[in-house]
Design a protein that fits this description.
Elements: H1 2-22, E1 33-34, E2 38-43, E3 52-56, H2 59-69, E4 87-93, E5 103-111, E6 115-124, E7 139-145, E8 150-159
Parallel strand pairs: 6-8
Antiparallel strand pairs: 1-5, 2-7, 3-4, 4-7, 5-6
């Protein structure tokens, strides 16, 4: 009897979730496909003073971005060459933050018939998280296959829960 009730609850929940999904405009639920990307660069301290979320489609723009990505790096070097006929870059920069508890990362990329959706997480320290009061400006760069569609960035703040002052919250 309990197994039947559990099965009924699970099936009801699944049907309700499916109905909710069918009425959604989310690209994954309207014919979108998940895109694989490659990490290109991550820096905790960059030259991006303000948040920036941008698709880069050409080498000249990439070289300007690269100088900002590597502004404080001792091993900057020239911008890596990218075959922009096959690929494009996604730059997600969180801007200047007040302590070292912030990170930025691309969580998911979905391409649908009319656009590309890029989900970006900005990881923030919560109360009791151990951080140092230093100015940082995290940036993440990813490479994906070329698309001429509009790229939309969805930015989601994620706040760490640290149970005591000695915890960083991320692990």
């Amino acid at each position: 009897m309990n197994l039947r009730r559990l099965l009924l609850v699970v099936l009801t929940t699944a049907v309700l979730a499916l109905l909710a999904a069918c009425s959604s405009n989310h690209p994954f639920l309207t014919g979108g496909v998940r895109i694989i990307w490659t990490d290109v660069a991550y820096e905790a301290k960059s030259g991006f003073n303000k948040p920036l979320y941008q698709a880069v489609q050409d080498q000249a723009t990439w070289e300007v971005m690269w100088r900002k990505v590597k502004r404080y790096s001792k091993k900057a070097g020239p911008a890596p060459k990218v075959d922009f006929s096959r690929y494009m870059l996604l730059v997600a920069a969180a801007g200047v933050q007040k302590n070292n508890g912030y990170e930025v990362l691309i969580k998911r990329i979905i391409e649908s018939p009319g656009f590309v959706e890029v989900d970006v997480n900005i990881l923030e320290p919560g109360l009791n998280c151990k951080t140092k009061p230093v100015m940082i400006s995290p940036v993440y760069v990813a490479r994906m296959k070329k698309s001429y569609k509009t790229v939309n960035f969805n930015v989601y703040p994620i706040i760490a829960i640290c149970e005591n002052k000695g915890s960083s919250g991320w692990f």
